[in-house]
Amino acid sequence: MLVFENWNLCQTNEPDCVCLFFFPETPVCLQRRNISSVILKSEDAKKRVHEQSQLLDVLKARIQQLQSDVVLDVQHAKVQFLKSPSFGGGVSSGRTVKGSSKDKSDIPKSGQVVTKGASKSQPSRWMKKLSEENINKLKKQQILQQKVQRNAKEKLPGKSKASKSSLMPTGTTHKTMSSSAKKRRGGTKLDSQSKVSDKDATKKTKDGDLTEIEELEKRLDEQVQQRIHLSTTESFQESSTGSSCGDIQLSIRSYLEACVFIGDIERSQNFLVSQHRVMSRRKHLTTDVYNIMMRVWAKKGTLNQIGRIFILMEEAGLKPNVGSYSAALECMGRNPNSPPKVISRCLNQMKKDGLCVDDLFRECVFQQDERDMLLKAVQTVKPDYEPSLTLNASQCSSPLVQDFYTNREHHIYPKLDFTQEELQRCFQCQLSVEQACTITIDSVEAMKPVTENMVKMRELLAEQRAQWQKVLLQALRENKMILTKTNTRDYKLNLYPYLCLLEDKEYVDIMIQSVSNLPPSGESLKILAHDLGNRIYTKYCVRQKHQNGIVEKLRSIYDAYTELLAKDTKVYNVLPREQWCKLEMEQSSGPTLQGAETSWPYVLMLELGTFIVDIMVKNLKINSDILNPAYDRKCIPILYHMYTFRSTRQVGFIKPHPILTQMQQEAMETTLTFDSSVMPMLCPPVPWTSEKFGAYLLTPAKLMRTTHGATQHEELLEKCPNLHPVFDSLNQLSNCAWMINKPILDIIISIFNDRGSDKLDIPPPLSEAPKIPHFNPQDPAYTASEKAHMKREVINAKKKCSEMHSLRMDALYKLSIAHHMRDKLFWFPHNMDFRGRTYPCPPYFNHLGSDVTRATLMFAEGKPLGPKGLDWLKIHLVNLTGLKKRSSLQGRLEYADSIMEDILDSADNPLNGKKWWMEADEPWQALACCMEIANAVRSPDPTKFVSHFPVHQDGSCNGLQHYAALGRDVIGATSVNLMPCEVPQDVYSGVAQQVEELRTRDAAKGLKIAQVLEGFISRKVVKQTVMTVVYGVTRYGGRLQIEKRLKEIDEFPKEHVWDASHYLVRLVFSGLKEMFTGTREIQDWLTESARLISKCGHTVEWVTPLGLPIIQPYHRTRNLVLKSTMQHINLQISHDTKERPDTVKQKNAFPPNFIHSLDSTHMMLTSLHCYSAGLTFVSVHDCFWTHALTVDTMNKICREQFVALHSQPILQGLSNFLLLKYCDFDLQRVKESTYFFS
């Protein structure tokens, strides 16, 4: 027994026992040492369910028998098995307990019995039977009560006398059943928890002939309700959050934390206890779940409650962890009268469990003053104790970076071009944005001249939104009231706490914002619901951090952290991650910054979002004559819940009414509201120091992007001993400051607000969209073929309008964000996908975007061009045009000098001059480069011209470069520029030339399709297939790519497209196999390894050369049905680790994913070494950016790190890892085998 067994838990007047649950057969107050005896075992639970089922049949039969004895017309009320609007009964899957929410049964209800023709003066045979049975029931009740009293006296010696009522636990009932029914059922016992009270059991009314029918009906109805609750709860426990134990545990933790956050301690305590008492639910409870309630009682200083939770944990077979002991000691620290002996016992017990005091301070996540109270308790018995905290100085095991971390004498870590005071002001601005969770910015469409109609529509919308806010506020409060009344079961998860996390007005604001952002074609209910749930979660996390006191500590640490980055402070020889960890250790008092929030399950976000959408659909209305007074006035919904088909699946979506769409389009509103997380940051991001902490100040962010609900990646990262190189690379990318290229932005906005330009990739407004034709399908004037043609035109026009709206809104968001940032400096926090490829967190506006977005971005820090910078600008410009790809660098430079007149004209007159820049492959970046070159050549000294312009260096088919290096293919390596050459090699042209040679040979042999293809094989035809074959494209996919290219050639005979694509894809694969002899062998080995691994029931895992663990999350798809009041949402779960791996996906994805992990490793190595050399460096996967001044240095580092990477035994290391991971046979065991040779 734990140390609490000897603690004085009776400091208050409470008895030294825990009166939690009772056996129905022995309803007595149990001592705390016997708590486990009252918990229902799984077999008992099964038996009880079986008995309830039998009881239902018995009661039905009894009613039928009684009714058959006389002429009675009993009207049964239909009881519908409704799905509860709670989180608890909303989901089912293929393995869920049977029973649908749509099932209906005719269940009789008490008080609905009507008697016809029965005379009071003529008692019938069944009335005598009833009276006899009533007498027998009274006798049995007396015997039962006497037996209970005897049991109580035997089991509680020395206890004070208790009344009969006190001996009967709440909710237990007397067993009452007619003798005839017992005989028919072989003496089946009734469930001891039937809800018939003593008063109901003994009551004799004047209408005694109806008493038993009413009583039996009432009991039948109550048993049905119990079975309904049981089935919904079991359904939830088995599958509501993905039928995985981890998801259910996450749901329980989320629910308890939400209850605690809103201050509903009674609800949280009752929920935990009710989960604990039933074995089928108790198995989902972990020590951390019990710790949640321990922390609550610790803050209240209630030590006896903590002791009881320790006892519950012991009954559940769980060991206390550091969080458990921390809560207990914290509670003692808050209580000034805590005896030192009790604290010492706790510390001794902790030591027996293999834990030391330092473990508490190292591993626990503290809130508010918990750490201080813990330290106070420890120092009560150890006055000289101070926590021994050390930085995690373990070096990365990868030999690639050992020298980087150990030899730092020549490292020159760059500073930001800001003073410390400026950075601190930047932090305050960003903190304000994240605290608000949303930000409203000016739309670039606001620059358009305002018309009278626009003013009118804006006023109408403002008026309607004010009205909608009132309606939604009232509807939300009404729904919350309903939830409080309809969900009374302690063990059921309920949406109510999640609807109390924020102020009611905040929920309404989220709803109004989602209506404004809804596209005219509508949005999938699943996507919309998850978006709403995620917004609520984000706001909740921010409020949690406020409540836990994190904001003030974050401000203190960040202010000190800016000393590392600012230009007016001393130079440090440490990395941002190392400095942040050092500052956290120095300021260890108070709350912990890392790991404070619990992620919500995907299904919870969906159900919460669906609940919100349902409120919106039911309550948001508008007058039908608001735009046209000629129409009849009636209130119509502004949102419609509809269905459409996506492929073969029916999908529910929410569509706005055309009136609302028209008002929004004509209003061209001047502002846009975004979540704060979609905006670039106004201060340097918080460095990644663990897999749970980094990037934004308050907004939750994930280190690794994963599919919703997938947890295997996070589990792998937590087990990984050292991810420092990965963290440091992400921090380096995130620390690059950016600014807006204002001249380019202004030109783009002017074209955007005019009519757009397809040629320049600026989408036109919807006024340019094709008009949707209207026709009456019932009109006999149209023939069947004409109707079909008209329908196709309507579908195509609607599709085109939808695409145009999506592109237009995407451009509007990007340009509006850029315009909002035009006078600011900003940063992009980074994270990565499961293969290690890095991405900026803000989704709309970033340097991974289109040509338009990239052209508007420049480095905030400028550097002089130096002796070769201007040449690199010119070469970069030629690269952007797509011309001279086969020319040497000198040839491109000479070409740039030859067109200098066009370059300067483009810079001076971009829209009215020769417009040379518009013919480039990347026109907007080319124009920006023209302007930079013009400014440089016109400066007094171009070598001293300060340039902010990023210059790109792109890999030559980077995937094939890695394959060629792995396979040491000389021919392949030469074709992708791994070997020195006079001019750049073009692998696409090389493959096209090889395919042409094979075609010529076949044509000479008389092959017809080879003869047809004469003159049509070009670089463009084969490029996409060559580029994607390294990423696992199949022959089928390659054929489709080539077919598309051939259809684009007007002169090619369309009747031969099918045969030609089949023929060419075979030649392309053959050509690549000859050029890259090792590539295909490596691909085949990777594919076959993945096939064998997945066939054995395992998912493919590996570790990158930098130590990043990777797992492929492809499993067989499992359907999960989320039941809501709106519709059943079918979720296809493909990441459930309990399902077998998807062999096809595992084997096809392994080669490309492995190569992606290598190119991300190369990028990270280049990033780290560029940082140590003082360079500004960012990447777009295999395209590296830096200042013109430092291109040569970056190129040198890039090449050195590629060589260093491929000098490692990568394939041998992978082979060893796979053997160790997936092969059970250990060769060393042969040495211990007696009978190996005998």
What's the gyration radius in Å? 37 Å
Number of helical regions: 44
What distance lies between the first and last C-alpha atoms, to the nearest angstrom? Answer: 52 Å
In this structure, how is the largest beta sheet organized? 3 strands, antiparallel
Helix content: 40-55%
GO biological process, one term: mitochondrial transcription
Main location: mitochondrion
Family: Belongs to the phage and mitochondrial RNA polymerase family.
Keywords: DNA-directed RNA polymerase, Mitochondrion, Nucleotidyltransferase, Transcription, Transferase, Transit peptide
List the helices and strands and how they pair.
Elements: H1 42-69, E1 73-74, E2 78-80, E3 91-93, E4 104-106, E5 113-114, H2 125-155, H3 164-167, H4 179-184, H5 198-202, H6 208-239, H7 245-261, H8 265-277, H9 279-282, H10 287-300, H11 303-315, H12 322-334, H13 340-352, H14 357-363, H15 370-381, H16 399-406, H17 420-436, E6 438-442, H18 452-486, H19 504-516, E7 523-524, H20 525-547, H21 550-565, H22 576-586, H23 602-619, E8 621-623, E9 635-637, E10 639-646, E11 649-656, H24 658-667, E12 671-675, E13 686-690, E14 693-695, H25 712-719, H26 724-734, E15 737-740, H27 742-754, H28 784-820, E16 826-827, E17 830-832, E18 838-840, H29 851-855, E19 857-859, E20 863-864, H30 866-881, H31 889-898, H32 900-908, H33 923-937, E21 946-947, E22 950-954, H34 958-967, H35 970-975, H36 987-1004, H37 1008-1012, H38 1019-1029, H39 1035-1047, H40 1057-1075, H41 1077-1095, E23 1101-1103, E24 1109-1111, E25 1118-1123, E26 1128-1133, H42 1143-1172, E27 1178-1180, E28 1183-1187, H43 1191-1206, H44 1210-1222
Antiparallel strand pairs: 1-5, 2-4, 3-25, 6-12, 7-11, 8-9, 10-11, 13-14, 15-16, 15-19, 17-18, 20-21, 22-28, 23-24, 25-26, 27-28
